[in-house]
Amino acid sequence: MQHFISIAEVSGSWLNQVLDRGLALRDQRRKGQAHVPILAGKSLAVLFEKPSLRTRVSFEQAMVELGGHAIILGQEGVGVGQRESVADVIRVLSGMVHGIAARVFEHSKLVDMARYGSIPVINALSDYSHPCQALADVMTIMDEFGRAIAGTTVAFIGDGNNVARSLATICGKLGMNFILASPPGYELEKQFVARIMSHVPSMSFEITQDARDAVHYADVVYTDTWVSMGQEAEAASRKAVFADYQVNAELMSQAPAHAIVLHCLPAHRGWEITDEVMDGPQSRVFPQAHNRLHAQKGLLAELLAPGSK
Ligand code: CP
Ligand code: NVA
User: What atom of ligand 1 comes closest to residue 264's alpha carbon?
Assistant: First the structure.
């Protein structure tokens, strides 16, 4: 059984299959053609330990559009690991629904779900990674530069966080170059970089402290919040540490004119990104958010109805 807990565990060809499926479903939707209800009779539990707009709506809408059903579960109701152990929660769900997408603090909860359950487990964001976001990011890059994205350079400016990890990994899997510009102490861990490089020795993966250097050859300039969910107590100190890592017009003047700007959202306007850039001509952040729906439809089709057409 296939899970989608991290990009590292799936192949580049499987990722391309998911993206192809998502793009085909998007085309159909845009033409107003009805989808074959490939998920009829299937339900997805979607569990949230943290807030969400895009992930929640895109999973529910994706299930509905493919003929299935989503059951949204908030942490206060389920109490995974508090009211009931992770293992018992997933054993129960395995007999009732056909898959689970879960947004959790500890990544290990997802690994435990896969271990004790018998349904596909999808990572809807953990403190460690956000692979569903990376699928939509790549779809947006393909929209801009065409299906052949190998050789494209993505510069991530800011925190070496969950979104950066999944994006770096998908870049490696699909032949893109990745540059991370972070303040000292907020880079991606050396072990993480070593692991990606051992899987994809040919990958170009650079880490710098200089945001201006990082964007020089970038086709894509990407940023995310400086304060991820769960880090709220560090907001003031992080704001000071990341001050030189804002994606603003001055930074964009150092990037090629064709570069696009991506952000997984929610954005903290005036912190990691200015209004001018976010609402400017290089920004693709809203099509990127909309691609969450299309990429997830591809993902759900491949995971819950493999082999369907
Ligand atoms: N990008 C993203 O995952 O958004 P939400 O937190 O709103 O789901
Ligand atoms: N890094 C952010 C991403 C939000 C979608 C967080 O974890 O809060």
Answer: 1
Q: What is the pLDDT of residues 146-155, one digit of tens each?
A: 999 999 999 9
Q: Please provide the average confidence, as pLDDT, over all residues in the chain.
A: 97
Q: What percent of the chain has pLDDT over 70?
A: 100
Domain match, 257 and 227 both: yes
Q: What CATH number corresponds to the domain at position 260?
A: 3.40.50.1370
In angstroms, what is the span from residue 30 Cα to ligand 2's centroid?
29
Ligand 1 touching residue 55 (CB < 6 A): yes
Q: With 90 as the cut, is the pLDDT of residue 156 above it? A: yes
Statement: residue 75 has pLDDT above 80: no
Residue range of the domain that includes 81: 7-130+289-304
pLDDT of 309:
82
Nearest atom (ligand 2) to Cα of 163: 1
228 lines ligand 2 (CB under 6 A): yes
Residue 133 annotated as catalytic: yes
Q: Within this chain, do residues 115 and 183 fall inside the same structural domain, yes or no?
A: no
pLDDT digits (tens, 9 = 90+) for 287-296: 999 999 999 9
pLDDT of 78 above 90: no
Asked if residue 92 and residue 125 are part of one domain, the reply reads: yes
3 is catalytic: no
**Together in a domain, 49 and 76:** yes
Rounded Cα distance, 198 and 172, in Å: 11
User: For tokens 């990544």, what's the residue?
Assistant: 107
Q: How many domains does the chain divide into? A: 2
147's tokens: 């299906």
Closest CA to 39 of 93, 122, 99: 99
In a shared domain, residues 237 and 111: no
Identify the nearest ligand to the CA of 228 by its number. 2
